[in-house]
């Protein structure tokens, strides 16, 4: 019996290269729509819950959301603020997508971000004499390496001692945050002023701005680049094939000659490095110094950003901007409509819950192949 | 320090140990049930916060910490119902739902706190909480009196609750089915029991007790609420369960250990003349957890079906 | 003629994508042993799971003792004294025998105060029925045969009129099998009704009063065993005459390819699993490894494949040292390995068929260049192999999880064999796949031998070993306890060896 249906056999292998040649055929739009529908529905559900809360607390949901939208996208500056907040989220989310696809639950991006911020600050303060051409990459590299080591440590503990990465990464979060608090109140405290913060990093260490007069810096483009690179790594490279195999079935990976332990450590280091880079861009692009609460929880939001994108780094760009918009919009909402900005956490949480209910992530767990 | 000063310092630390361990004890005991049934709930932090806020709000308005505690348990059960519905009935990923629950817990409690209490915060935020209950005679014993017999009701309750938990887990038909469900759910199914029901029940126990752990912070340990008051205790409880090897008494012992380090750190911050930065002691429990993991190697095996949704 | 105990009327059960039962009708009489015979996937297990309340039928009726049954859960079945011993044991490994037996017996709030009484009752039962077991033992410390005893005791403890056994002999030695069959006959004599699911004709002939043959989710025939012949049943079962045995090999054996000296391997719990094993496999021969599963065969295979550390001894492959090499290096030395557990190891279920074909070679040219995958090459490679090995699928982009077990195994076989291995290590190549695929797989293995490969075949299916192997090594408790020419008339001895009743006189060159 001829088993390969001729029609299918002759079809050119096109599904893999969707990204390169996006054709707007009805069929493509249909698949795209089917992929997008659950996240969009989840967002709608979350906004609805938020609206109910707003109403119950005596605010006008329409007005509050209007202000929020305005705050996120209403002006060049607001848009820039949204993208600024999206930058660490996209960086972290891309890295976590790699980790989650490799089957390791890195909950420690927050700590890895701090580790990166500390190292970047040190580099930015210490190497004052260097030109920007060298110093900027150096600062970013320092942050990335430091985050990678912090993340890799949890990977090492898992591979060597079988320690649950969920617990160790959470512990390492606390340790990194406490260590930062120690550094900025003790050894690294600024000379003058004596606030619990470090001195400013060198001018040459600062990231160039890209959308004058806003604060948007080149870190955003870097984040897009990292997302793209993560995508290529995961789905187009042989290393990514190995990592995804490890994530789905460690036994099959070993059978295929893949070093599972190394794979887990690599993906922890990659996700830690991305989070460390996020810390570095925060310092070098925005705050120019280190202080105690340098991250408002980007590391935890990043988990949601990655999951909502079904651990696809390209999707992370969109969910990262979405979460960035929610954050920056809610700040404006607090300022202009006196609505507590923490509402955004509820909205983010409910987005995740509804997406979970709609079965978005079952795909991640049961099958990790599709983009 | 003088010898006498050391003794009283130690007494103060140990007295605080049990108090500070109490939220861990409640929360980790609940999580032992949940994980023994195969459900990993990393959303404990969020549930604790919701419990803490509910207890605070209800006590604030009714003046009764007992009502506050009851309301907190109810709120915890509601969280548990949501968690179980998503992870058990819909087989959603437990990590995802747990992470979401943390976001919701933090956001919801902070939002409600600011919306409801921002006006009255300064004027009337103090209320009557579970206050220390000195046990006659015993509390006047030197050293031990301070440590053991001047605590509040919720602290006294911990060994009783753990005893009860241990009894239920190891000596009742329900406990047997919980232990079986976490290891080998298909067997439970085949024995004519409903895996989903057992998991629902265990998750409800887990979230209910996590809410109690949170409520303790606002109606017994202090008498106020502030945003993020749990400050990571829900995450610590997860570690406690692992290090306590998924047993109620193990969780109790490890909770006390963590409580000791918390107490030590707080006391040492107050002691003058100590050159070690207080952050070092702050980080102790977390460093300790990592050290224990290394020391345990691979000996602590989690329940066989932990984190795996069951489909019949 | 005795009365009917259980009547199934036009049972239909459909799962997403699978029509397991398409209107099966069946009558079981009181006190009989009734075999359900059929290939894998014929719908036997699903049908019995319906009787046991694990599944609910889409349509059709279950009539038990004249009463219409609507079973919502196994609890309802247990209440009506229906018991089932599943193919995969339903036991919690971390609990004791007694705890397993009372699981689900009591309402949740019941306090388990008198475990000693439960244990006493179990001991009494086990004496009465000759099923020796320690009620306090933890399940994971018991052998497979003992675990089966616990399963049977469980049903006896609950009280049972109708006992359903799903492939109970798959994990037993021939002697244990015989003992089980005798036990069942005895129980039937005491009035117990037994439904015995199997695909082994010998057992049907040996034990049953009547037999119902299932094929493709329908009952084909019910016959009185005494009036049936194995050949006729086989024909009913597969719907055609089958030739299971590949043509015998021609030509001489060649040089030594695999030689193993004094091999020791520890299992996952670090207990010795393979002890002092020495063996050789030459080019052009198939050496079979027989033994009840769990006697070190799996560990031997994993150690040879570089997936489990060798604790002592040496492995040589084509003259070079192959002890504790990585799977990757072994593969370069010419090893191909068809692993025991297809789903856990052999394939990556969510990956496409094409991706599964390059599991070993995904980072080699031509499938990767500069670290990037070349999906064009991967796909055309897959299409070639699909054609060559007759894999039935929609397209190579299909996820392999959507293929039948037989076709999945063909993918594994194709992937391993196309590399023209020097040593082919095959573990349970036909477990859980249909008869057509089985035949195909066996032919492919024989073809490799003919092409000069050395083949080490591990299987718990004695028929398969005898059909394919030139000689057999029998494993017991991690040792080779006998080496024997593979022949049907030696099956008795093989069985004895598998049960550890070795005599040195049985070893032959």
Query: Terminal Cα separation of chain C, in Å?
Result: 54 Å
Assigned CATH class of chain B? Mainly Alpha
Major β-sheet profile of chain B: none
User: Total number of helical segments of chain B?
Assistant: 12
- The coarse overall form of chain C would be globular
Query: What is the second-level CATH architecture of chain B?
Result: Orthogonal Bundle
Number of strands of chain C: 22
According to CATH, the homologous superfamily of the largest domain in chain C is P-loop containing nucleotide triphosphate hydrolases
Low-confidence stretches of chain C: 504-509
Helix content of chain B: over 70%
Round the mean pLDDT of chain B to the nearest integer and report it.
Answer: 87
Shape verdict of chain B: globular
Average predicted local confidence, pLDDT of chain C? 86
Rg of chain C, rounded, reads 24 Å
Give the gist of this structure.
By secondary structure, chain A is mainly α.
Detailed description of the structure:
- By secondary structure, chain A is mainly alpha-helical.
- Helix content of chain A is about 70%, strand content about 0%.
- Chain A has one domain: ABC transporter involved in vitamin B12 uptake, BtuC, CATH 1.10.3470.
- Chain A is globular, with a radius of gyration of 22 Å.
- Chain B is mainly alpha-helical and about 300 residues long.
- In chain B, helix 1 (about 5-35) runs antiparallel to helix 9 (about 195-220), helix 2 packs across helix 9 (about 195-220) and helix 7 (about 175-185) crosses helix 9.
- The radius of gyration of chain B is 20 Å and the shape is globular.
- Chain C folds into two domains: about 5-240, 3-Layer(aba) Sandwich (Rossmann fold), CATH 3.40.50; about 255-350 and about 420-505, 3-Layer(aba) Sandwich (Rossmann fold).
- In chain C, about 30% of the residues lie in helices and about 25% in strands.
- In chain C, the strands form five sheets. In chain C, strands 6-7-8-3-9-10 form a six-stranded mixed sheet, sandwiched between helices. Chain C has a six-stranded mixed sheet with strand order 16-19-20-13-21-22, sandwiched between helices. Chain C has a four-stranded antiparallel sheet with strand order 2-1-4-5, with helices on one face.
- The longest helix of chain C is centred in the middle third of the chain and has 16 residues, at about 175-190.
- The interface between A and B is large, with 50 and 49 residues.
